[in-house]
Each structure stands twice: as C-alpha cells, then as structure tokens.
Design goal:
Strand order of the largest sheet: 1-20-19-18-17
Oligomer: single chain
Structural class: mainly beta
Largest sheet: 5 strands, antiparallel
CATH architecture: 6 Propeller
Number of domains: 1
Low-confidence stretches: 1-24
Radius of gyration: 18 Å
Shape: globular
CATH superfamily: TolB, C-terminal domain
Number of helices: 0
Number of strands: 25
CATH topology: Neuraminidase
CATH class: Mainly Beta
Length: 291
Amino acid sequence: MRGAKRLCWMLPVAPGLLACSDPIRPEPLDVPPFVFVSDSGGVPALYRFDADAITRLSAPGTDDREPHSAAGRIVFTSRRDGNPEIYTADLSLAGQVRLTTTSATDDAPALDPSGATIAFVSTRSGTPRIWLMDVTGANPRALVTGSPTLVPEGSPSWSPDGTRIAFTSTRTNTSQVHVIPVAGGASVQLSHEATGAFTPEWSADGQSVLYMVAAGEPSLMRVPAAGGDASAFAGADGGISEPACRGSICLAVAGALNGPGDLIVISGSGRGRRTVLGRAFDDRQPAIVVP
C-alpha cells in the first residue's frame, strides 16, 4: 500500500498556484459500480468494483483496456489480437464480440447513451481520427470534424443526450478539446490551454466538459459546453486525471501519469473527494457502469 496522497481542491488564487484545504472529515460520497483497468495481474485487465468488492472480468493474458459503459453494455479495447481492436460485451464481460478486424489501430471506444453507436479512434485512414460504427460493428464511417484528415484526433466522449461528441484535435498545433454535433455541423473549440488539453468528459447535466491539463502535475479543468472561459475543477498533490462522471459524482485517478494511481471519487463541485481504491498497482481508466 502506498502512502496516502494529500488531496486538495483548486481555488481561484494567483495564476499557477494551487491552494489546498484538507478537510478534517472527507465528504461522504456514494460510489457507483465501476469498471477499471489494473496491472495487478501482470497484464492490463478489466476489473469491476462494486460495494468494496473487486472482481476480475478479463481472462488471463487478454490485455484489455479503455472500458466504457452505456445501456447495459461495455465496450473496450483489447490487444489480444496483436494490435488494438474493439470489443463489446455485457456488464460481466460475457458474450464478448470483436467489432473491428482491420490491421489499423482501433481504440478509445465510447458507446452512445442509447447503446446504438460507438465512437472510436482509428488509424485506418493513416492518421488517428474519430470514427463511428453501429454497436454491431457494421457501417464504420469517419466523423466529419472539419479539419484536414492529416490532423490527429482522439478521446471521443458522448454528451449525455447523445447529440454531441467532445474530442481532442491538434488542428491548432496543440491538443485542444472540441465539440461537434453528431448529426453534422461546425465544431467548436472549447479549450485554449498553452500546454494542451486532453481526455474530455461531459458533466452529467451536459452543461460543461471536464478535461485534463498537464502543465506540471495533471489537473482537471471545466469549461461550458457552449463555449466560454475554463475554470479549475480539481487538483491534487501528484495530479488528477482520467475523469468519468455520472449523476452527482466523478471518478478519477490521483497520481502521476503513467505510474501507480489511486482511484478517487469527486463531488460535482470538485471540492469533496475521497480515495476509493488506493493500492500499489497501477489502477486507472475508471468507467462508471451504466445498466
């Protein structure tokens, strides 16, 4: 067990400074069932956390990552086939179906709230771009985002009503968060971070988008989904990244990027939080289970 990280929230103080407050008692926060990735078995695998119990979902040696849940399903990336491919399964990871079969890299899947369409990242056109496909794997098509096809894109995230997708694009030379209507239309750049913005995640009400900045220790920002000024959402000694939100809470990873992390729960305000899973393993990529 690693030593506990001192968690703090980010307050509007002088630029570049992190103001911390350590509450005497952590705010009570309900933790919904979630799936996450861990190296505790040697190879990355999917596990489920539910009522303080951890259950391994992946078979040994399958190298499964990047889970996302919606409409009683899980989509995830697996490297069991030699290159990243996208799979779907029920919430216990039974009935697994491989959805992509190309020699390209297909990863970062996100299932829309209705469970009908998957957004994902693919290099099948040469550069990582946002693609869509039916939940059966049929009808793959590139999402028209308005930037040249040679511009890398990543991290698709569906709005709660399924009408918009937030994603990252380097069309302005650094990774920034954009949002676009799925039915078609112009994309809007939401973030304007000098060091880049990554891994967007919608708030449960669809009014804002969280994203990670990595200037120094990673922290989370929040920006209105319609556009506007971004504000600090949450930070911690050692960093916070990989938000996953639903209802009044968000899950996230506390710890340095590419290193052992603790899984934490954060209130919708970003102020209250507590550690859910603090182990010596690299626990990461939480995805709240949606029945």
